[in-house]
Amino acid sequence: MREVLDKSLKDAMKARDIQKISTIRLINAAIKDRDIATRSEDNTEGVSDQEILSILSKMIKQRQESARQYEEGGRLELAQQEFNEIKIIEKFLPKQLDAKETETIVKKTISEIDANSLRDMGKVMSLLKDNYFGKMDFSKAGEIAKKLLSN
């Protein structure tokens, strides 16, 4: 993941794409911050690719919230800048599953572990996070699982 980001930064610099350069630098800074926070004698390599995906997802959510606030405040040019950053960050995430795919996977997971009540919700979500991290919106998956398990 880090190599992909470094290559993209170099390509953006060659193309003189200011927006992309600044966004990738923000991504790298967030990763470095997390590296420093998790650094220990046992962990000298920094965060894993899965944690980098988590950082990217969090950055997208932050920008969506900022864009919404800018739109409410009538600052459309700033909202557009946030949306542009979201598009750049999304390029580093795996393809997201749509609602229908998510529902199918949640149903399949529930039947695989024979979940039959809301008490099994934690097991279902844990398995989904293990298998589909970075590819699935877990808030939507949680809603689907809750609906299916409460019947």
List the helices and strands and how they pair.
Layout: H1 2-15, H2 18-38, H3 49-72, H4 76-90, H5 99-112, H6 121-132, H7 138-149
What does this structure look like?
- With 151 residues, the chain is mainly alpha-helical.
- It folds into 2 domains: 2-90, Hypothetical Protein Yqey, Chain: A, domain1 (Orthogonal Bundle), CATH 1.10.1510.10; 99-149, Arc Repressor Mutant, subunit A.
- It contains 7 helices and no strands.
- Helix 3 runs antiparallel to helix 4 and helix 5 packs across helix 7 (138-149).
CATH topology annotation of the largest domain:
Hypothetical Protein Yqey, Chain: A, domain1
Mean of residue pLDDT values: 90
Count of distinct structural domains: 2
Terminal Cα span: 41 Å
Attribute tags:
151 residues; mainly alpha; Hypothetical Protein Yqey, Chain: A, domain1; Arc Repressor Mutant, subunit A; 2 domains
The gist of it:
The chain is mainly α. 74% of the residues lie in helices and 0% in strands.
